[in-house]
Amino acid sequence: MTTTVLNAELRRRVEKIRSLPSSPAVLQPLLDVLRQPPDKIELGKVEQLVSYEKTIAAQLLRIANSPLYARARPAETIQAAIVTLGIQRVEDILLSNCLGKLVPDDKWVVDPGVFWRHSFGCALVCRELAYRIEYPEGDRAYLAGLLHDLGIIVNSLAYSDEYRTVLAKAVESGRPLDEQEEETLGFTHCQSGSFLARAWQLPAAVTEVIEFHHFIDRAPSGNPLIALTRIAVRGLGYGYDEWRAIDLESDPAWTILAKHCPRLGSVDLARFTFDLDAYVVSITTLVNGIFSPN
């Protein structure tokens, strides 16, 4: 199958996903409120809308009461959770919750709990990495980490049967998921995710992260978020042992990021790698606790 034919077929399937009426009714009204200028946002209105969707409210309370926010006293109300998390984080959690609802239970190929642990974990590591290297857009880094694997949702929905074969082969061989996708499907979750990201009009910088986080050599040179996300995803897999490893010193992502963040020029790379790996371990423990059933 030619690339042109493949892309046309992929776009057709993505268009079907785009039109699915599966997001909670509260999504658009909440986004409209959250995206107003900060001094115009009414916390009471946010609290009211969140209260209409129990799964979103429960997720806000769970994350606000996690060790990540280290509250002296538990947040026992939705208002307390919103204040603890902040408006930007509420929007991110809302978006991740609604994305999860795009996929019916019988269509998930990757375990949904594993998927959201991976996505939320990457978001937190992206934010921390941005802080450590003095990258100025920490919230944008968080969103890029949260959505970088959007294409896995696309593939689960649009190519359910074929994707089960992809995952089974990847698990059996320990092969990276994107490489197995390329061989079996002829495209990767990076391509399919970028189609949906454009259909949803996500920010261009985030869309580029979705498209190029596994293909750093093809990435636009003006978007350091791609390199940052590629580095942040180290150690955050999908529940099986991938044989791919990223060595910061030799990875082009590090060189690209250093051009945009001068602080990296004075960093002790061995120490930085050790500290970042330790942070990934702690975040993995945290995220497992947040997404545990109890």
Verbal overview:
The protein is built from 16 helices and no strands. The protein has helices at 3-18, 27-34, 43-51, 54-64, 78-85, 87-100, 112-132, 138-147, 150-158, 160-173, 177-185, 189-199, 204-212, 224-232, 252-260, 269-290. It has 294 residues and is mainly alpha-helical. α8 crosses α13 and α9 packs across α12 (189-199). The mean pLDDT is 80. It is globular and about 50 Å long.
Give a quick rundown of the structure.
The protein has 294 residues and is an all-alpha fold.
The N- to C-terminal Cα distance equals 47 Å
Portion of residues in beta strands equals under 5%
H and E string: HHHHHHHHHHHHHHHH
Number of separate strands: 0
Radius of gyration: 19 Å
- Total helical elements: 16
Note the main sheet.
none
Mean pLDDT: 80
What class do helices, strands and sheet pairing give? mainly alpha
| Shape annotation | globular
Unreliable parts = none
Which percent bin holds the helix content? 55-70%
Summarize the SSE layout with pairings:
Layout: H1 3-18, H2 27-34, H3 43-51, H4 54-64, H5 78-85, H6 87-100, H7 112-132, H8 138-147, H9 150-158, H10 160-173, H11 177-185, H12 189-199, H13 204-212, H14 224-232, H15 252-260, H16 269-290
Helix pairs in contact: 1-12, 2-3, 2-6, 4-5, 4-6, 7-8, 7-14, 7-16, 8-13, 8-14, 9-10, 9-12, 10-11, 12-13, 13-14, 14-15
State the main characteristics:
294 residues; 16 helices; mainly alpha; globular
